[in-house]
Write a structure and sequence with these properties.
The chain is about 80% helix and about 0% strand. It is an all-alpha fold. The protein has one domain. The chain contains four helices and no strands. The protein starts with 7 loop residues before the first helix and ends with a helix.
Length: about 110
């Protein structure tokens, strides 16, 4: 692969991950202002699943290059590095956002 083809998969994954995190942020915001944001849950989880699956497949391919001995340091190392960072940061932010969505409102707990 040459040129943009080397980073196209990571660029697409980063773009879709940003969309998924944006949906999480919107859902958390709507909950904070006490509006119904449940219509965002299905697209949010679908985007997260698709993006993390794509990143996993891309990283698996790069690791297979290492095992097969076709490892190109400049290309494969950077893709593994940035792909892993995208995945870890995406999972951390998604986990925190979903935890915020799961929490009950403090006022509702006080009333109960």
């Amino acid at each position: 692969m040459i040129g943009y083809q080397n980073i196209w998969a990571l660029f697409g994954s980063a773009n879709q991950l940003l969309a998924a995190l944006g949906l999480i942020a919107c859902a958390v915001f709507l909950k904070k202002i006490k509006k119904k944001g449940s219509m965002l849950y299905v697209p949010m989880f679908f985007m997260l699943a698709a993006t993390l699956t794509s990143l996993t497949m891309h990283l698996t391919g790069n690791f297979q290059n290492i095992i097969a001995g076709n490892f190109v340091f400049n290309r494969d190392f950077l893709q593994i590095l940035f792909g892993t960072l995208l995945m870890v940061l995406g999972v951390v932010v998604a986990f925190q956002g979903v935890n915020k969505l799961k929490k009950k409102d403090s006022e509702a707990e006080a009333a109960a």
